[in-house]
Amino acid sequence: MGRVGLGVAVGCAVVTCAIAAALVGRRARSWWRWARVVGVVGQFEEDCVTPVWKLRQVVDAMVVEMHAGLASDGGSKLKMLLTFVDTLPDGNEDGVYYALDLRGTICRVLKVQLGGSGSKIINHKVEQQRIPEELVSGTSEELFDFIALTLKEFIEREENGQVPGSKKELGFTFSFPIRQLSVSSGVLIKWTKGFTIEDVVGKDVSQCLEEAMSKNGLHMQVAALVNDPVGTLAVGHYDDADTVAAVIIGYGTNACYVERSDAIIKYQGLLTDSGFMIVNMEWGNFWSSHLPRTCYDIALDDESPNRNDQGYEKMISGMYLGEIVRRVLHRIAEVSDIFGDSAHHLSVPFILRTPLMAAMHEDDSPDLREVGRILEESLQTSGLSLKAKMIVVRVCDVVTRRAARLAAAGIIGILKKIGRDGSGGVASGRTKGKPRRTVVAIERGLYTNYSMFRVYMNEAITDILGQEIAQNVVLRVSEDGAGIGAALLAAAYSSKR
Ligand code: BGC
Fold first, then answer.
1. How many distinct structural domains can be found in the chain?
2. Radius of gyration, CA atoms only, the chain
3. Which of 228, 249, 442 to mutate to test the pocket of ligand 1 (most atoms within 8 A of CB)?
4. In which element (H, E) is residue 313 found?
5. Where in the numbering of this chain does the Hexokinase C-terminal domain appear (predicted)?
6. Which of 281, 313, 320, 358 has the fewest Cβ atoms surrounding its Cβ within 10 A?
7. pLDDT per residue over 87-122, tens digit each?
8. Domain limits at 89?
């Protein structure tokens, strides 16, 4: 080989080595980046685990906090609020009742026709209206005017242009923590679910609504002011007398149950004729060191308008699940390039809403087409690899599984408190060796709209209680229960006056 030939050969070898080195380098870098993604997801998964022993700790912590909240106001983060609902509708209620159901971002108006003499609900009609975003942080007057007008327009349509001349009774579902003064009145303790209308805090919300209605020419009075699970429990019990508790897992989360009045120590021994009262737990504010909390939960809480509050809600409810996923994906985008150029969209809070998360989680197409489509629409990603889409599904799974299992532990906590968990004791779920049927009413929300949530929740109930006891616990879905229940309670309480 001549000199030239040798030179060319050496040159080629150098170039080949350089290309090989570059390829190996790129591979190594991509391997490292992928290892970091796996590391972030693995750590998150580990921090979110909810083995049965941990769930049982959550059950017991719930029971302890329930006792503390019943003993004194401020005794626990669980407020255990009195509702003054000590009679439940029994089917003898008669007539047409309207209800207004103010949830998170949605307001529903309902007309319920009751037949009396045990004939149950003859008919009901529901319409809903989105609360304009600016009202969530506006003034009391703007909010109550808006909902009063929504109700008035609905009633006018239903009554062919006529609005009631003399005072009619209304059921008002107000889905925020209220300290009730009576069954028909109560003051707002604080806002949740992103609402920040400061001038309502400390005010009687029934009075605010009545003033707004009267200002707008609608003469109605609130006969029952109820929190949403209380309405759900009223309907649940009306349909099935074994119903002892109700749970809402929607945009927010909460539960209530039927408690013996002598167990409500802070009620200072005032016994009710029925011997019971429904207690609104405000369980979204439950907290225990046994809850598996991650750095993402901490950051979410720190940046929320209600820091250190609603800790359980922030792990369970629809307002937050998509946001937790977004935070984990954002971290993944920081350590890798799997989301490409659009990663910066992941820094926008609440961009990934829970219904989208549910749709991605439940995508069963082999190439995860729906995941790709949703991420493309909400984050403007394009051409995501299958591996990246699988990671997204994995994160959704971890977040939902933890939420559903923790919610299940909360339910078993209530059942344990009232002796319906089959663990023995005076008021146990076992009577003379036979387990008692126990029904928990549950509003549609995540339980019906997110099938993986439902699957994980039912699975956890069986894990905690065991097959034999779990088969006697029925989660019964109630549609529009919160609003219909308010109308039913308005009927029950106005007939008592
Ligand atoms: C509120 C509760 C309400 C629940 C479900 C929570 O944020 O504090 O009062 O029942 O959401 O709507």
1. 1
2. 27
3. 228
4. helix 313-316
5. 245-491
6. 358
7. 998 888 889 999 999 988 899 999 999 988 777 777
8. 81-243+480-495
